[in-house]
Write a structure and sequence with these properties.
Elements lengths: L7 H7 L1 H9 L18 H6 L2 E6 L1 H18 L3 E5 H4 L10 E7 L5 H12 L3 E6 L5 H4 L3 E4 L12 H21 L5 H11 L1 H9 L3 H9 L5 E6 L3 H16 L2 E6 L16 E5 L7 H16 L3 E7 L11 E5 L8 H18 L18
Parallel strand pairs: 1-2, 1-3, 3-4, 4-5, 6-7, 6-8, 8-9, 9-10
The structure holds 5-amino-5-deoxy-1-O-phosphono-D-mannitol.
Amino acid sequence: EKGGYDYFMLKEIAEQPKAVADTLLGRIDGSGRLTLDEVRIPDAVLREADKIVIIACGTAFHAGLIAKYAIEHWTRIPCEVELASEFRYRDPILGQRTLVIAISQSGETMDTLMALRHAREQGAKVLAVCNTNGSTIPRESDAVLYTHAGPEVAVASTKAFLTQLVACYLLALYLGQVRGTKWGDEIHAVVRELARIGDEVERVLETMEPVRALARSLAHKDTVLFLGRHVGYPVALEGALKLKELAYMHAEGFAAGELKHGPIALIEEDLPVVVVVPSPKGRSVLHDKIVSNIQEIRARGARTIVIAEEGDEAVVPYADHLVRIPATPTLLQPLVSTVPLQVFACELATARGNEVDQPRNLAKSVTVE
Ligand code: M6R
């Protein structure tokens, strides 16, 4: 059942190109237009929406954080992202024109379910992004956009995360299409890239051996930090979460711009710091900023593990370890930059003798508070 892999997690990491392709299947037509038949919420309601609120837990929350960048950029609808466990006990401001997106692999997470009930009671429309057919969260939502990752068995979420991203991108692009916002060359280029991104994920998977070797060499470490900017920031959070749950290591993700506001005090000799570097093209301001951040932490002794696009030469002098990922449009980069972090955490867990598929104290589906 593990298809020749030692762990379900390894199998599920390897299945990501297919999971991504399956989630795209039938949703982009030949001319680059999107059809999301399952989104039963009438286009008129989507056109009227004046606010989007994303609720989720754990890895799904990280997908939501990334979705915010895409939604606001492509649709110009203000978007908030909140942990379901916080949202459900707050008094949020929602109305008939609020669209709530509940993201959940299992469709059974108690906090997310309670948060969506809380939202519907106040008249908001709820759309679920879910991987499990017929589970409670889609059943209680106004509409559902299924991710087609197939069953995810390992407690640590991998392929479900990538497909949650794909579903959120599709949804954001669909909202843009329905509302007629920014429906121009940029969007067409993104849709084209998205349609073939599974192949890029495959290419990343083919080059992971040095990442595994690096992970094994760090098995004795106590702490690993992760830095990113823009969509790379939630990717850093996700890399840290994977390491916590699998390797039981102290791992934290930071927005690189926050370094000087505290985290830089943690930097000491030979501390591994993973840095997710944005594309050097287009958003060069961000890229320059992160190169300075890498210089700053390295000058203080950090061992830098740099994840950067192919052809990005500016980072080379400051990278103790360099992991290459294919060039993608900025907003889509998490689909490729997350993969090395998953492999890294899985290998570290194995090297530390941990149970990869069933980490201690965790359950696949959190149906209690
Ligand atoms: O089934 P859900 O997507 O609602 O689950 C949410 C979290 O419990 C889940 O993503 C958790 O954080 C994973 N173990 C992360 O790998």
